[in-house]
Design goal:
Strand content: 25-35%
Largest sheet: 7 strands, mixed
Number of helices: 6
Order of helices and strands: EEEHHHEEEHEEEEEEEHEEEHEEE
Strand order of the largest sheet: 7-6-17-11-12-14-8
CATH topology of the largest domain: Fumarylacetoacetate hydrolase, domain 2
Helix content: 10-25%
CATH class of the largest domain: Alpha Beta
Amino acid sequence: MANYKLVMYQAAQGPRAGFVVGEEIFDLAGLTGKLSYTTTLGVLDDWESAQAILDTAITKAKNGMIKPIPLDQVRLLAPVLYPSAIFCAGANYVDHMLEMAAVQKIEPDPNPRGLGLNPWHFIKASRSVVGTQAIIPMPVHSKRVDWEAELAAVMGRPAKNVSLDKALEYVAGYTVANDLSARDFSTRPHLAATSPFRYDWVSQKSFDGACPLGPWIVPAREVSDPQNLAIKLWVNDALKQDSHTSQMIFSLAEQVAHLSTRITLHPGDLILTGTPAGVGLAKREFLKAGDVVRVWIERIGTLTNTIA
């Protein structure tokens, strides 16, 4: 079983899917002869067969049957261009729930499990996805853009009403995400707190560049337990978030199983699993032009972006 990472990269003929072995990148369609593997979505649509095909392709690559490109000479794009859906877990880390309760000067909510609640998700626009090293323009309507480091799961099989014990079998791999949020547009002004029309999820969560993603997809077989990963975020080398996926309230398996009871999950769909404590809102610190944000997740990699 070969180790590799799936990427999308900018080639002369346009975006192409590749796999990274060591410090080299190989064109997937060229090496496998499968035209559908021009994109990672094409690979994910064929995930059950693709894993064996990719293992064979890597053997060919190591035998020199195709010339690789040095990784440092390639511009990586978001590893999924573009998912049909991005589901984002809200209030899913114990430390973040306590942090936000302190910001709002309210008593922390009881453990949602004790209330019989299920995981809770909102949707982010697919076209808000950008890759590592992308320069992200500050949205003109916001002066309070915040960071949120998140583990992202990439689906590899259609999932509908899947059981909890089988849920992770539907995950193809993992990548790193930053759920950027325009905090000054979380609610609409002049509406009562009790109004069902108070919240503005589109303006808060789906501006251009609001979903940095990357640098690649690490196959799920190389991450034995998604609930056992360190996660960190820096702004200009200052550590802001430092936590662990074991702090999730609802595990990834629980999220997959629950979402699949509401809607069919498809290959390439993303599940952003929530963010830990350390977001800017807690200290009234927000991103500004020139800031460099790095998100690192153990066993997966580092996502880096600059705010323009």
